[in-house]
What does this fold into?
Amino acid sequence: MKVVLLSVGKTDHPLLSQIIEDYRKKVNHYIPFEMRMVPDPKNRRSLSEKEQKAEEAQLLLKVLHPSDHVVLLDEKGKQYRSTEFARYLEKKSHSVSRQLVFLVGGPYGFAPEIYERATEMISLSKMTFTHQMVRLVFTEQLYRAMTIIHHEPYHHA
It folds into this structure.
């Protein structure tokens, strides 16, 4: 199984980018992990919220494969403790044959067609984060889960 973090827009802050990249490399020690990005829609400032979500949806759907197991990172999703997320990933490694794709939407969330395409939703917190921070929190939690699965000392319960 390969884990993919697919997001709308890029990480602009250089320090965040470096930290995210450090965690990405650490995760790849355990499991194939790739971060992909679709660009923000052109002229997004002139688009309504609905139009922007629709354009983002089209960009996301173009890069998803029919066999992908899609998980939305969404405020309405299920919340996990770090140890529970590790167990979740361990179970998925036995049931997902190809790619486990976690989606980060744009500033207004996801269009209805993305919710329809998704298999499930996970919430990283009840709080709202910037999309750049979501990438950081997710990659750190993915690394933490890998160390939990492999009984390594990074995570202290």
Observations:
- The radius of gyration is 15 Å.
